[in-house]
Amino acid sequence: MASRSDTKTRILDAAEKLFAERGFSETSLRLITSKAEVNLASVNYHFGSKKELIRAVLARYLDVFMPAASTAIKRLHTAPTQASLEEILSALVDPLLDLNELRTEGTTIFLQLLGRGYIESQGHLRWFITTHYGQHLDTFVKAVSASAPHIPPAEMFWRLHFTLGTIVFTMASADALNDIAAAEFGEHNDIEAVIRKVIPYMAAGVSVPVAS
Amino acid sequence: MASRSDTKTRILDAAEKLFAERGFSETSLRLITSKAEVNLASVNYHFGSKKELIRAVLARYLDVFMPAASTAIKRLHTAPTQASLEEILSALVDPLLDLNELRTEGTTIFLQLLGRGYIESQGHLRWFITTHYGQHLDTFVKAVSASAPHIPPAEMFWRLHFTLGTIVFTMASADALNDIAAAEFGEHNDIEAVIRKVIPYMAAGVSVPVAS
DNA sequence: ATTAATTTAAAACACTCGTTTAAATTAAAC
DNA sequence: GTTTAATTTAAACGAGTGTTTTAAATTAAT
Predict the structure, then answer these.
(1) Percent of all residues in chain B with a pLDDT value above 90, rounded to a whole number
(2) Cross-chain CB nearest to A165 (options B123, B165, B184)
(3) Where does the chain cross the membrane (chains A, B) (predicted)?
(4) Is the CB of A1 within 7 Å of strand D?
(5) What rounded mean pLDDT belongs to chain A?
(6) Nearest Cα to Cα of residue A19 among A61, A48, A67
(7) What are the percentages of helix, strand and coil residues in chain B, rounded to 5?
(8) What are the start-end ranges of the H helices in B83-123?
(9) Which of A66, A208, B30, B86 could join B203 via S-S bond, C-beta 3.0 to 4.6 A?
(10) Is the CB of residue B166 less than 8 Å away from at least one CB of chain A?
């Protein structure tokens, strides 16, 4: 059989789908390689270990999304008035949806991977993200904090993680929820519609005054 | 050694702690039985399989929490004025905290189990809960809808699932988030503090006016 | 006290897992 | 075209998994 120089890509493509659907530890290397139609050992040859494959899958998205999100938020800074919280969150929508042009279902897969990473791995993925993309996260947190100056930093920390949970869980079950919504209320939303629904919800929660 | 009729309880007690901390699939039966100081085979003798053990662990909490939550919400109905959304959500706090008297760290363990169950199992636990505790869920949804009559049913459907995502994700990673919060802001929150933090967030999101 | 039903115990079973090895193949370099 | 390096392949390794089996011990009933 002819050699394929795209073995790495085939592995990454198969792995990200399975990881997003089933989680990291529930996805075996044998399932990945059979779906990718490559040899089992090629994972360890190209990536070294399963853990490093997981990081590579995430990095392929983060390397695109994080800079795009950063510049989108910095663009808001050039406006004469302070951007509202909803404007800041909305600025992330385009970078998020652009992932769909990177790969099919890219937006959904990315958000699901993010959620899995936060819950499954015992901190090593969180460490990976904060050390590799810390400055991008900083600009986001600073922008959000500036738009809601009445929220103390510690409170904002919690609310931003509430927000992460909202978006991640919603995306993980978006397909199932869409089916129910279509059957029960006769409305069908695509990913973008769901994202635009969730933004007001998150913006209201993040900026609600702290109880004394 | 003398026979112990509390072998089932010893298994359940050890299992729920480990399941909450590490997740279901990351917790082996050997780890559970060694921590419970019982024989490995006794799990399959008393519960049949690991999957049934997981359900038994969850049912032990749900059987207590669900009726208590239902009656707490129905009690609000007796008041002369319509309960606010925050009042409805707050009514769940006491049934939740009462689980701490059932077992040590009961509240934390229950919520983490719920989160793990929703994320790890692909819908199996969702089915288990809705079929076994559906009427309790109904009273909750009806009470919330009545408290926010300006939200159309279809929009409320989405927002309640946003809310589910918020609480589930937060509880699944509560320990990790608490560690970060302690390191970064020097504040350490118990589970009640986190619950009281998340309620205003969710209440604001659910009741925010729908964009025209 | 004897029998019967539970409960515990130790070991093995039949997998699956990530990883490694060593040979075969392909691509690149000279 | 030969040599060298990079890549792919098949097979096995060792450790870990849930589950089952078989026998012993304990408890309950007769």
Answers:
(1) 71
(2) B165
(3) none
(4) yes
(5) 91
(6) A61
(7) 75, 0, 25
(8) 85-91, 93-102, 106-120
(9) B86
(10) yes
Q: Are the CB atoms for B108 and B191 separated by under 8 Å? A: yes
Q: Which residue, chain included where needed, has tokens 């993925």?
A: A125
For the record, the structure tokens of B71 come out as 């009656």
Cross-chain CB nearest to A185 (options B115, B118, B154): B154
**From CA B42, how far away is CA B7, in angstroms rounded?**
8
Interchain contact B76–A (C-beta under 8 A): no
Written out in words, the top-level CATH class of the domain with range A59-207 is: mainly alpha
Distance from CA of B105 to the nearest CA of A (A): 20
Q: Is B48 within 8 Å of chain A by CB?
A: no
- DSSP of A127-192, one letter per residue? HHHHHHSHHHHHHHHHHHHHH-TTS-HHHHHHHHHHHHHHHHHHHHTHHHHHHHHHHHHS----HH
Please report the residues numbered 95 through 134 in chain A whose beta carbons come closer than 8 angstroms to any beta carbon of chain B.
Answer: 115-116, 118-120, 123, 126
Between these two residues, B17 and B169, which has the higher pLDDT value?
B17
Residue B79 DSSP SS3: coil
B136 residue type, one letter: H
* Domains in chain A: boundaries: 59-207
Of A171 and B71, more confident:
B71
Token reading at A104: 């099919």
Using the CB atom, is residue A3 less than 7 Å from strand D? yes
Contact criterion met (CB below 8 Å) for A149 and A207: no
Fold of B60-207: Tetracycline Repressor; domain 2 (1.10.357)
- CB–CB of B157/A185 below 8 Å? yes
Q: Name the minimum distance, in Å, from the CA of B150 to any CA of chain A.
A: 15
Nucleotide D19 C1' to residue B48 CA (A): 9
